[in-house]
Write the structure tokens for this entry.
Amino acid sequence: MNAVNHSDVIKIGLLGCGTVGRSLVDLLAERESELIRTTGMRFQIVMIGVRTISRVTLPADSQIEVTTDTAALVKNDNIDIVIELIGGVEPARDLVLAALNAGKPVITANKELLAKSGSELYQTASANGVDVLFEASAAGAIPILRPLRESLLGEDIKRVMGIVNGTTNYILTQMSDEGQNYAEALSQAQQLGYAESDPTNDIEGYDAGAKAAIMASLAFGNYVVASDVTHEGISNITKEDITFADELGYVIKMLALAEKFADGEIGVRVFPALVDKKHPLASVRGSYNAVFLEGEASSELMFYGRGAGGLPTASAVLGDLVDAALNLRRGMHRPVIHGEPASIKPASQMRSSFFFVIDAKNSPGVLSAIAGYFSDQNISIKAMEQEPLAGDDTQARMVFLTEEALDENADAVIKLCEASDYVSQVKSFFRVLR
Amino acid sequence: MNAVNHSDVIKIGLLGCGTVGRSLVDLLAERESELIRTTGMRFQIVMIGVRTISRVTLPADSQIEVTTDTAALVKNDNIDIVIELIGGVEPARDLVLAALNAGKPVITANKELLAKSGSELYQTASANGVDVLFEASAAGAIPILRPLRESLLGEDIKRVMGIVNGTTNYILTQMSDEGQNYAEALSQAQQLGYAESDPTNDIEGYDAGAKAAIMASLAFGNYVVASDVTHEGISNITKEDITFADELGYVIKMLALAEKFADGEIGVRVFPALVDKKHPLASVRGSYNAVFLEGEASSELMFYGRGAGGLPTASAVLGDLVDAALNLRRGMHRPVIHGEPASIKPASQMRSSFFFVIDAKNSPGVLSAIAGYFSDQNISIKAMEQEPLAGDDTQARMVFLTEEALDENADAVIKLCEASDYVSQVKSFFRVLR
């Protein structure tokens, strides 16, 4: 055991004291002796900056000063490291930049801030020779950014695929495992606190998109910002979609997919996809998250865990805190990404396999006509099934699984179907994870 | 992009040039410009030490010196970092200690060495102020040791569960998915190069045990050595066992399980276990590996990937190499475990749920007698099923699933069954992962 140097105290200024902040206060208290043993340092939150002091509930014997003067906190000479848990872009951005410019390492869990202004933060940290660490921002408790930044520094990563939004994964899991429809599953997620009363940010993929931008930046070494990410939500998914997928051996998952193409362009999109039940991502259920990497040398890697929640997120913040403190004492900081802004491939130019369920007239020649829409668009059909629609044998239900093709060509097939006299509806349409 | 300083070359001495070593030579060549971009350093293997020079096949234009004088290599002033890929305890141990004592950071993928002499290596590295890094030793390409050592330094880890042997996982997956029996699956694994001609080290759990010892040491902060690990192999597993498990919603997996108990004792064991099909470890198929962690704050985490293979293992070595080189240039090294040797709990005192399939006389009173063996041993039965044995209705097949109980009590039930006039055989017995 190391000799404990009681004078080596790391003084922390905490911005924001919601669920994660409050969990961090408790976690640091609980792990104090173990942290002294493993790091030789005592971590002490000396000040908490909030908007409304009366909302902060600390243990009765707490010595922590609570202030609304956050601008003073980030420059306070008595503070070694700043932890930002406010969320949102402003005032978090101003405060983080001020802290970095005051020479203080910053730890943040703020995905919106990083996905919008990450480059500015990295550059400011680098110019001041301090760390900006943000493990909790991308996948909650899952240590994914550190492996990306360190273990995989020599790796040529081709794809990053994540289930990085617990709300949508909970809803899709309930629809899949419990046979609920979308509205029922959303309502249950809201009751359990997994979804907000206005769930747009989660359901439409904005939350996952911000996280994907952060991961893509680290994986590929070029900055990707939130506005580079294209989104498709899950609110139109039906119980029938889940059943169609299930019968073919797939589950539907809300995926964040970041790819590096041979031409050097990067594509990042969030969309519901068919995932083979045997793929490890298919086993990620409920509010859990996972990130799947495909690298040239390391082959496939997956990281799984809690993507949200006070204590899991606080544990990721604590990992960064230890890292920042050790670096601070050694007078060093971690290198950040050296790259330029990514060159973004338009979504229409990205490729996938596709899954179509098409209801059409049940008569000779119709299948041939619809198959023609695919061949017109240079899409090869991998598998096809057709049967009369239950209860209406004038209609047939056709299921098509295609080879890889351009997104814009699949869109064109949908438009051809919609304009066709044979087709009554495109009942279901999804991309398939390869 | 960083200015490239062509004079900053990291000179590497490589010990051993088998599959992993050869992949590393190629990987470093292929990633050279990217590594210069991200680290500012050029990584150059200047010397390879082997037993038989004629076995080393390098690219025709290679400038690498090949030598049999490994003792001189590890002390050579022209070498900055030593990579040990010989395997086995000696002469690897002597060479690694000599390199560390010569002030050179060492990277090793040698699980036997670490699981036997890890403590000696860590202490020697620490005394010389250099790194000994060994990411590739525990789970191949999966970056598990760095998260354990860094991201989770503030975490109270309770259990580490791993599928860390690709040979046994391949065999069990083939038995499960393809209906092969043990001999067929082993033979196929041998043909594909997943199993050695003498597969004992994998099949009986020694390989997994060494990896579990390394992970337990880092997870719990106390040294665990290979001889602390208890083992049970998979060679007795039958197709019927797989079917029994399947019918109850389980798959059989070879698990390495390391636990920290409330009394501070640590238990590490390798055994085939029933894993719920919905558990993420159940989705780890074929030659893939995964490590599942349960922590107080981070909750559940899983890391999945390739556990073996030349290129994946070389990618893990490369991650360590970059880390060691950055540390070397900063004049620092990573702290290693500060703990004492672990206090080991005897396997008989560890607890599990158990699964029994017992064939017995099909007559009144027999079930009651057998249930009595469990209650005699303080084992509560959670679920029980009984039906006449197909083709022989004088016999009944009874399936018992128990609550958690001590291993020694489950052993006693087996002995009671074997001594019983009612019981013809204990057909199947497994621990169940909770």
Notes: Confidence is low (pLDDT under 50) at residues 1-5 of chain A. Chain A has three domains: 9-141+311-330, 145-306, 348-432. Chain A touches chain B through 62 residues (CB under 8 Å).
